[in-house]
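Input record (Table S2, row 135):
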Amino acid sequence: MNPIRAVLPVVSIVVMNSIGSYVSARGAGLACPDWPLCPFPGDELVLLEFTHRAFAIVVLLAVVAVTVPSIRYGGVARKLAVLALALLLVQIGLGGAVVLTALRAELVALHMAVASSVLAAYSMLAAVLLWRVER
Ligand code: HEM
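Output record (protoporphyrin IX containing FE complex):
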């Protein structure tokens, strides 16, 4: 696999996490009180919150590009790819729950914990895939 493809999920998740913390720091978490869509036209905060949601599509595309070959490789790559994808889908659902519960503190904390776990899982997968390329 092309090494750039192997690290794309990691890069996109780092960007996603940064946008998420910017949303939080700007107090834009409830700028879109609904899910999955936002009321448009909206102000800068609506756009910021919507960017965080919409970027999940970019993350998903990057993830599909490594999940399909990883499943084909089998072994550790397959196990990590399935675990990481499951975590990512839980994270997207949690994002919706965070909004629909008006930023319930426990869910915001869980959203942060799963964000770190998703990043860890895709970093490990990238290491396995790159190691496979090197051999
Ligand atoms: C790849 C998927 C996602 C990742 C990795 C991710 C990651 C993050 C991170 C790291 C934060 C900052 C948390 C904090 O500072 O405490 C955050 C905040 C937030 N995320 Fe996500 N997120 C994802 C998807 C979503 C989706 C689909 C939604 C849907 C609405 C969403 C809604 C939110 C909201 C509302 C906040 C702000 C919470 C607050 O104001 O404290 N996230 N996200």
